[in-house]
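S., here's the first fold you wanted:
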Amino acid sequence: MRTVIDQMHRTIQVPEHPQRIISLVPSQTELLFDLGLDERVVGITKFCIHPEEWSDRYRTHTKPRVGGTKNVDLEKVRALRPDLIIGNKEENTQAEIEALAQEFPVWMSDVEDLEDALTMIERIGDLVHEVPEATKLNSGIRSAFAALEPLSSPLSAAYFIWRSPWMVAADATFIGDMLERCGFTMPTTGTRYPQLSDAELAALDPDVVLLSSEPFPFKEDHIPAVNMVLPGTPVRLVDGEMFSWYGSRLLRAPAYFQELIDRLEH
C-alpha cells in the first residue's frame, strides 16, 4: 500500500498497483479507458456511455454497472471487490462516498477549471502507473487549447443545463471555464448553477443562448420555449460532453469550440 492525497486533500491508502478499479464518473471512466486500463476497470455507472466498448450491451466487454453517480449500489460494489474507487466531489454524494470509504480506498477528484482537470489526469496516471500515457494526453490537451481562437468580441451567454426550472451554469464552474476560454461571459450570481424564472432570464438578456445536451437533453423542440422568454436571442444546441467532461474528451473539445465560435461569427 502507498499513501496518496486526492484533490479534496484527503489522505488515503491505495494498493501499489490497483487491479480492480470502479469509476463513479463518466468522464473519468472514459479517461481510464484512454489510459489503457481495459481489464483493470471492473465497474462503472449507468451514465458511463463512453467508450462504446464498455457501454454497448451487445458487446462482450460491457462493464458491470454499480448504479448511478448519485445512487451507487453498495452491494454491487461489494460484489466486484474493488481495490480502488475513483469519484468526484460534484458528481457523487458525500454520504455515499463516506460509506464507500469505510470499506474501500476512494480517490476523489475536484475539478473546477482546465488546470484542475490536467492535475486530475496527471494524478490518476500516477495512481494507476500510466504516467507516460497521462503525460502524453495532457500535452495534447494543452496544445489543443493553445490553438483555440476565442470570439473576436466577447458575447454574454446563458448556458442552459436544465428546464423546469430553468438552470444555467455560472462563471465559477468547469463549464464556465470552458465558456470563458471561448470568449463568452456568464452571469455571476454567487450560485454555481442558478435557477432562473422567466422574468430573471429576460432580465439577464444574454447575447446568445446555448442549450446543452446534458444533464437535461435539450433538443430543437425546446427552442420555441426559450424564444418566448428571449425573443430575438440566437439559440444554439451544444454538446454538453464537450463543455463538461473533464477527462480525455478535452482533447476533442477545442476543435468543437472552434466550430461553434466560427458559426457564431459568420
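And the second, which I think is the more interesting of the pair:
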Amino acid sequence: MYIKKILPLKYLITFLILISFLAGCTSTKNQTEIKPVSETAFLMGTMAKITIYDELEDKQIFQKVFDRISQIEDRMTINDDNEKSEIMQLNNSGGQAYTKLSADTFYVLEKGKYYSELSNSKFDITIGPLVKLWNIGTESARIPDAMEIEKTLHLINHQNLLLDKGNLSAKLNNAGMIVDLGGIAKGYAADEAAKILREAGIEHAIINLGGNILTLNTKPDGSYYRLGLQDPLEPRGDYMGIVMLNNQALVSSGTYERYFELDGKRYHHILNPKTGYPEENAIFSISIVTEDSVDADALSTVIFLLGLEEGMQMIETLPNTEAIFITSDKKVYTSSGINDSNFEIVKDEYQLQK
C-alpha cells in the first residue's frame, strides 16, 4: 500500500505571501502613502505574520506580540516535551485532582466547552485521543483499526471535563482523556495579538497566524482588506475568491489542509468525535467571518462537521457571523450577510448558489 504524505509548510509560506499581496493591493498613490511594515515568526506550528499600516514609533511592538503568542503556545500545546504546558499537566492528571490554570487556558477551555455543547458534541475539545490515534499531518499518519477507534471513542466526552471558575482550575474525570485545543487556540492567540496592538495605539493592521486572519479596522485610506480565499482543489496559494474584511476575523477549514492518501482515498484531519473517522460530507471548505478570531476558529470546525444544511442554520442564528461554503461539486453557498460588497468569486468554475 502506498501512502502519500502531505507536508504543508512550503505551501503555507506561499499562501502567506499571496495573502500579503492581496491585503496590500490598492492604488499606486495609496501604496506609497501607507507603507505597511511586516514581521514574521514561526509560532504555534505555523508562520505568524503581523502587518501594521500605521506609522510605528516602537518597533518592539512586533516582539511583544510574538512573545504573547509564544506564551499562549507554551500554555496550550500538547507536545510532550513542553514542561510549561498547562494542557499537558491537565491531561496527565486525568482521573486525579484538579489542575490549576492561567486565565488564558481557562478561558479557552470555557470557549471549547461552549462550542462542544453548541454543536451537540460534533466538535469536542477532548478529541485528543482520536487525534493521536490517526496522527494526520505527521510522518506516522495511519488508518487505525475499528477496535482501536471503538476503545478511543469512550475517552471523548467534553462533559467529563470539569471547570472550576472560582479557582481557575480544571479536571478530566478519566485517565487517558486528552484535551486538544488545536481547533481554537490559534484564534485566541490572534485576538490577544490584536489586543496588544490596540493598546499600543495601532488602528490598522492584519494578524495572520497560518491563514487565521484578523484585521484591525480598515486600511488607513478607508478601503477594506482583500484576502484570497483558497481554492480547496488546488495547491496552496491558488485562490478562488476574494473576501473583503473590516475589523473582522476570517478562518477557513477544509479537506485540503492536512491529510494523507492511501490507495487513492484521502483521509483529512477533521475528525468526527462520534464516528472516529474523518468527516465525510459534501463540504470541501468552510470559511467563517466574524468579530473574534477565537469564535471563527472554533466555528470553522463546528460548521464543517455539522454539514451544509445544519451548519447554515446555525450560522444564521449567530450574531455578526457569516460563512462561505465550498462543496465538492464547486458550488458556493453563503450566509445572508455575504454579498457583492464583501465577497467576489474570481474563478468561473465556481458557481454561487442563490
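Why I say that: Residues 3-66+186-352 form a domain with the T-fold fold (CATH 3.10.520.10). The chain has a mean pLDDT of 89.

Talk tomorrow,
H.
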